């Protein structure tokens, strides 16, 4: 049967996302690592990883095996701590998210609440397709994204194909971020027509991106001024410096410079159903469960009704 060393190999490969990087971290050659994995696959009669020119990815069987492997290693760690006075394994949690301030705020609160001498936490603000792939390959425990009437069929189909589950958190009416100096800043609501003269700023989704993967739930039909960016800090600077706007949930926190940027409701019937995704065969780590609790707390603090499950 599988050895503890082989289980550690599998977990490290998934954490690194590539066989080459894992071999460096484990201080063994890549051929030796590949051979050990192949030997384990042959012994168990399953395929743990699919291999292609783009790299490796967990199969459905591999995702299930990873869950058991982590449980075994956790139990071994507890036993070593009890009888060898060894240090417990580092607390681990990885989150992939669209560019939401509340997701980062909850992540900070999760870290503050974890009492552990050692931990390794990762949060990735990234493209929609990357979020889905990272959770599918178990590089991330949790993904944060939204569904709307426009994208739910395409995104939902992709989630099902990759054996992922969507768990709704809250429904948000649409807002825009605009500069306080913008002439629309004092309006109770704005329309897309009102916004037409100003630069529309959106998160870039890459070559494989499409409207279905856009982080903005609506966008102008014809925008003479459009800017694509990859991070939140840039968007906020462009809103101030270029008098641009972006479509968002409207949730504000300390990242937003309230002296220079305001949120204004957008006059539309479209809403965003924000939620988190997980692999259907994965068991959440304790820090990941704490993160979800903090996420619900943050949303409640911002006045949103969290959907109970």
Automatic annotation (TrEMBL):
Biological source species: Bifidobacterium castoris
PROSITE patterns: HTH_LYSR (PS50931)
Keywords of the record: DNA-binding, Transcription, Transcription regulation
GO cellular component entries: protein-DNA complex
Protein family (similarity comment): Belongs to the LysR transcriptional regulatory family.
Cited SUPFAM superfamilies: Periplasmic binding protein-like II, Winged helix' DNA-binding domain
Pfam families: HTH_1, LysR_substrate
Domain of life: Bacteria
PANTHER family on file: HCA OPERON TRANSCRIPTIONAL ACTIVATOR HCAR, TRANSCRIPTIONAL DUAL REGULATOR HCAR-RELATED
The protein's name in its UniProt record: LysR family transcriptional regulator
Gene Ontology MF terms: DNA binding; DNA-binding transcription factor activity
Domain HTH lysR-type: 1-59
């Amino acid at each position: 049967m599988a050895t503890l060393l082989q289980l550690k190999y599998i977990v490290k490969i998934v954490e690194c996302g590539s066989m080459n990087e894992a071999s460096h971290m484990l201080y063994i050659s890549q051929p030796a690592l590949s051979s050990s994995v192949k030997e384990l696959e042959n012994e168990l009669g399953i395929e743990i990883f699919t291999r292609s020119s783009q790299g490796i990815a967990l199969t459905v069987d591999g995702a299930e095996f990873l869950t058991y492997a982590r449980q075994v290693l956790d139990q071994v760690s507890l036993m070593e701590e009890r009888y060898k006075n060894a240090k417990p394994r580092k607390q681990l949690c990885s989150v992939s998210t669209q560019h939401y301030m509340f997701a980062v705020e909850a992540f900070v609160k999760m870290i503050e609440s974890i009492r552990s001498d050692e931990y390794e936490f990762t949060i990735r603000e990234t493209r929609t397709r990357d979020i889905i792939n990272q959770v599918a390959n178990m590089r991330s425990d949790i993904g944060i994204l939204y569904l709307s009437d426009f994208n739910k069929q395409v995104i939902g189909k992709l989630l099902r194909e990759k054996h992922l589950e969507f768990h709704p958190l809250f429904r948000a009416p649409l807002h825009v971020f605009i500069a306080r100096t913008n002439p629309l800043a004092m309006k109770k609501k704005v329309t897309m027509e009102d916004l037409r003269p100003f630069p529309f700023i959106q998160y870039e989704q890459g070559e494989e991106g499409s409207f279905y993967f856009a982080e903005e739930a609506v966008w102008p039909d014809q925008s003479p001024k459009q800017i694509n960016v990859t991070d939140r800090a840039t968007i906020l600077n462009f809103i101030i410096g270029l008098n641009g706007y972006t479509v968002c949930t409207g949730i504000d926190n300390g990242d937003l410079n309230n002296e220079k940027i305001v949120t204004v409701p957008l006059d539309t019937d479209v809403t965003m159903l924000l939620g988190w995704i997980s692999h259907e065969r994965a068991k959440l780590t304790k820090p990941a469960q704490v993160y979800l609790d903090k996420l619900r707390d943050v949303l409640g603090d911002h006045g949103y009704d969290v959907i109970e499950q």
